């Protein structure tokens, strides 16, 4: 808050999104200070883009990105040779994608998943002589070695095999991208919000490391364009720094960015978190490059207190010794008193003395600054230690925002989607966000259940199965807003998200139709799964089949339709248009069936034997509108 009030740019990396009681509370306040507001929420629909490969057509930048993903070993190990090979391949592919592609890491993952042959064909078709020279060693490896290297790269780039992340980190139109360089020129609040569950140990941290390095690289380049210093000071807050994982070259970076008017604020709960990621030697190098420390001794562990005491060093103290004696036999006649003083060394602040620190009392260390013991109040505390809090007025306002998250949500939505020229505000942003979420559910083909009016068969409610949804779709960040508008709410002991009648009214006719088709598809898929043993063409041979899966269609007796769909049968006839046919003298209907059941355990036929509509293979090719991978409702998107 103080940095923003002083006119500095602030960048916050927050792993607690979508917690609206944290950093997002500052948005309504910072809107009044004249700051540019930029939000990067990569797992949310509608976020602006942060093109991580924008400058990677430069071989040096491409190698820097590759080194961030596969760090250079400071000490050679048995794996160093293989890591060097992986890094060289990755740097070349990154440079090529940044030069001729959309700057998409997701595209690289899909290429690598196709295997070594596809990688070599990709390089050969481009005709880039430099790339061929850089990849020359790869061609000389054995097939097993090539497969191992490619598989290792797929594992390291796994986070980008996510359409949300690919969309948020690829290049886009100018108004779709966050201009990080502008952060160094204009006071800006850049908030990067990422759910903690998306940063599983090691894998998801690669993405966050790339974000931090991209921001740092862009700011340093902007500083070079302005005589070596950013026109506006930039403060980068890295909350729970250890959760970001290992950032190569952190000690060198901290030593150099300070002169560019770029500051890093690192927070740790304990020092062992840093030692775990960086090792003791490198972590000490990082710590020694920090300009100021703010310590709360009362809240740290005993091990950390010992380290702090050792770091503070010793001070000089006078030690007085007193000796009593006498001369003669009787002490009272000739007493003697001997007092001696000498200088001794003692700890400036011992671990036991740290117990005297109260809550909110801190120890501040810095260059040319004697260790300072002071009070640091919370924003919402009017006084502490007998001193008035100068920021209490702001803290009081922020406390009100904590109790009314709707205002914070509205502020977030105002800055997520770029406003069209000439538009007066963005009054329909909540509706757009809600429709984007429904579209993600339908595109992902996640299980839904339909509820209807028994008389008119009109949809009254739709349940979306939360247990089948990935985060953050399972816990939408703006559910508070939708619930307040009456569009959606949790039901079934929070196991389902209910789209209410008012929520259905927000959707277009086409969106409601797709949602209804999805519900009918899951009703049929569930019936087929329960009755798999009597459906021919799904697995083992069935002696007395009741239904048939053939030519990308499910043939069922006409009388069974009522059992499958019940009261929804009229809508099935209207939307799915089943064709009448006969099987073994039984009147039947042919429905556009699932292309590939999730529970289908058949061994697929060779690729050349498959043809469109062939029931022995996977049937029709999946349409472009559907998501990748097999699903029980592929046929909806043909």
From TrEMBL:
<dbReference type="InterPro" id="IPR051539">
    <property type="entry name" value="T4SS-coupling_protein"/>
</dbReference>
<feature type="compositionally biased region" description="Basic and acidic residues">
    <location>
        <begin position="605"/>
        <end position="624"/>
    </location>
</feature>
<dbReference type="InterPro" id="IPR027417">
    <property type="entry name" value="P-loop_NTPase"/>
</dbReference>
<dbReference type="Pfam" id="PF02534">
    <property type="entry name" value="T4SS-DNA_transf"/>
</dbReference>
<dbReference type="GO" id="GO:0005886">
    <property type="term" value="C:plasma membrane"/>
</dbReference>
<comment type="similarity">
    <text>Belongs to the VirD4/TraG family.</text>
</comment>
<keyword id="KW-1003">Cell membrane</keyword>
<feature type="region of interest" description="Disordered">
    <location>
        <begin position="602"/>
        <end position="638"/>
    </location>
</feature>
<keyword id="KW-0812">Transmembrane</keyword>
<keyword id="KW-1133">Transmembrane helix</keyword>
<dbReference type="InterPro" id="IPR003688">
    <property type="entry name" value="TraG/VirD4"/>
</dbReference>
<protein>
    <recommendedName>
        <fullName>Type IV secretory system conjugative DNA transfer family protein</fullName>
    </recommendedName>
</protein>
<keyword id="KW-0472">Membrane</keyword>
């Amino acid at each position: 808050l103080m940095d923003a009030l002083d006119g500095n740019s602030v960048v916050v990396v927050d792993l607690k999104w979508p917690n609206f009681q944290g950093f997002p509370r500052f948005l309504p306040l910072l809107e009044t200070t004249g700051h540019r507001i930029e939000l990067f929420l990569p797992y949310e629909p509608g976020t602006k883009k942060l093109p991580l490969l924008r400058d990677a057509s430069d071989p040096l930048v491409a190698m820097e990105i590759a080194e961030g993903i596969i760090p250079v070993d400071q000490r050679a190990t048995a794996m160093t040779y293989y890591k060097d090979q992986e890094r060289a391949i990755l740097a070349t592919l990154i440079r090529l994608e940044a030069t001729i592609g959309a700057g998409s890491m997701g595209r690289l993952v899909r290429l690598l998943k196709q295997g070594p042959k596809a990688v070599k064909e990709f390089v050969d078709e481009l005709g880039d002589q430099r790339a061929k020279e850089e990849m020359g060693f790869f061609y000389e490896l054995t097939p097993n070695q090539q497969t191992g290297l490619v598989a290792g790269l797929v594992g390291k780039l796994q986070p980008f095999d996510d359409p949300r992340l690919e969309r948020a980190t690829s290049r886009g139109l100018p108004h779709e991208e966050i201009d990080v360089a502008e952060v160094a020129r204009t006071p800006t609040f850049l908030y990067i919000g990422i759910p903690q569950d998306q940063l599983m140990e090691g894998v998801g941290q690669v993405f966050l490391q790339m974000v931090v390095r991209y921001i740092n690289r862009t700011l340093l380049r902007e500083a070079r364009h302005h005589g070596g210093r950013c026109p506006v000071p930039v403060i980068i807050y890295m909350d729970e720094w250890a959760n970001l994982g290992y950032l190569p070259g952190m000690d060198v970076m901290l030593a150099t960015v300070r002169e560019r008017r770029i500051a890093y604020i690192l927070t740790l709960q304990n020092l062992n978190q840093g030692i775990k990621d960086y090792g003791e030697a490198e972590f000490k190098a990082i710590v020694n490059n920090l300009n100021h420390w703010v310590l709360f001794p009362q809240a740290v562990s005993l091990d950390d207190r010992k380290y702090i005491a050792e770091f503070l060093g010793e001070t000089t103290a006078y030690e007085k010794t007193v000796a009593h004696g006498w001369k003669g036999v009787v002490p009272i006649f000739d007493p003697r008193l001997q007092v001696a003083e000498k200088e001794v060394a003692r700890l400036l602040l011992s671990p036991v003395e740290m117990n005297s620190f109260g809550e909110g009392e801190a120890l501040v260390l810095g260059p040319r600054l004697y260790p300072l013991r002071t009070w640091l109040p919370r924003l919402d505390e009017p006084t502490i230690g007998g001193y008035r809090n100068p920021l209490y007025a702001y803290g009081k306002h922020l406390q009100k925002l904590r109790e009314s998250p709707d205002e914070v949500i509205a502020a977030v939505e105002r800055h997520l989607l770029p406003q069209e020229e000439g538009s007066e505000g963005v009054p329909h942003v909540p509706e757009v966000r809600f429709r984007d979420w429904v579209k993600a559910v339908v595109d992902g083909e996640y299980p839904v259940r339909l509820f209807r009016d028994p008389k008119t068969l009109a949809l009254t409610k739709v349940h979306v199965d939360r247990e089948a949804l990935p985060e953050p779709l399972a816990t939408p960040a703006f559910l508070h807003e939708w619930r307040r508008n009456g569009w959606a709410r949790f039901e079934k002991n929070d196991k389902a998200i209910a789209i209410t009648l008012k929520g259905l009214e927000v959707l277009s006719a086409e969106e409601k139709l797709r949602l209804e088709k999805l519900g009918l598809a899951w009703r049929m898929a569930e019936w087929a799964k329960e009755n798999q043993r009597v459906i021919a063409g799904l697995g083992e041979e069935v002696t007395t089949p009741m239904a048939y899966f053939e030519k990308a269609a499910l043939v069922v007796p006409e009388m069974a339709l009522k059992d499958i769909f019940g009261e929804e049968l009229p809508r099935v006839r209207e939307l799915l248009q089943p064709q009448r046919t006969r099987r073994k003298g039984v009147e039947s209907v042919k429905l556009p069936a699932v292309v590939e059941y999730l529970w289908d355990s058949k061994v697929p036929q060779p690729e050349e034997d498959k043809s469109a509509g062939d029931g022995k293979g996977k049937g029709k090719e999946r349409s472009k509108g559907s998501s990748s991978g097999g699903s029980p409702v592929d046929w909806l998107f043909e």
